[in-house]
Write a structure and sequence with these properties.
The protein is of the alpha/beta class and 306 residues long. Helices cover 26% and strands 25% of the residues. It has 11 helices and 16 strands. The protein has helices at 41-47, 65-68, 71-80, 95-104, 159-164, 171-177, 192-195, 215-220, 238-244, 249-259, 277-284; strands spanning 3-9, 23-28, 31-37, 55-59, 87-91, 114-118, 125-127, 130-136, 144-150, 182-183, 189-190, 204-207, 226-230, 263-267, 290-292, 298-300. The strands form 3 sheets. It has a 7-stranded mixed β-sheet. Strands 7-8-9-12-13-14-15 form a 7-stranded mixed β-sheet. It has a two-stranded antiparallel ribbon with strand order 10-11. β5, α4 (95-104) and β6 (114-118) form a beta-alpha-beta unit. Bound molecules: zinc ion (2 copies). One zinc ion is lined by residues 62, 64, 139, 141, 210. Zn(2+) 1 binds at residues 62, 64, 139, 210.
Amino acid sequence: MDLRLTFLGTGAGYPTPERNVTALAVERGRRLYLLDCGEGTLRALQAAGVGYGRLRAVLFSHFHADHCLGLPGLLQTFQLMGRERRLDVYGPPGTKEFVRRAVNLAPFSPGFCTIAHEVAPDTPVELDGLTVTSAWMDHSAPVLGYRLQELDQPGRMDAERARALGVPEGPALGRLKAGETVIGADGRTVRPEEVVGRSRPGRSLVFSSDTRPNRNLTELAEGADLLVHDSTFTGEHRERANETGHSTAAQAAATAREAGVGTLYLWHFSQRYRDSDTHLSEARAVFPATEASVDGLSLELPLGKD
Ligand SMILES: [Zn+2]
Ligand SMILES: [Zn+2]
């Protein structure tokens, strides 16, 4: 199943022509999830060509304006589109009140349910084959960081070998892939391990949102394929980062190194910087597998080899 991330907004505080405020789209198969939903998220989804009608859930890190003001407009648009399917919204305490206000902000009667869930870090949430774990970050408001962990995926099917063993085309192949034994055309029993490779580890994505470096995040991100981390400031403004509950690029990189992640993506850049070159060089000096996100950047997370 394809797993794709698209950065919809990579700036902090307020939107500019170059960077929208925070939002990230995660597409897995036909399902779409949003991590935060800052003002302008709907247009960013359209610009990135992400089909937002299939949005399944929104996960909020916290309710500072640059992370959440896109929800009321998104709900109203769904109403205009005639949405009937429910929308789930997850987040820290305060999520139920925020959703209630978002639904009632302008007079409209949605034809669909928006269900708010207040998440407890010790209780993972199951979302269509993804396990969502959360942890408290260290910011000026209660912030949840999230880990989206896919279950292990079935190995690759050797269709030619299956055919040679007399497995008929169609549902029998799917049953083998799901780990069941099937009977071939000549009555021979075919076991899954004869035609399906070893299962492949599920992919994992960790999203810090606004935070100072902290132990919970290092633990949450342990061994993740990808970490998206607050990188509001460069080293020159380290004090400011600490005062406002954010991280520098080098601090993000130190967390990525300690957690042993595959790739680090910096985001949530302060609008005071013209570009992210300094962030990137400071971070790469600590953790070379670092990239700087830009609005509209979209990447596929491949499954590991079997
Ligand atoms: Zn923010
Ligand atoms: Zn914040």
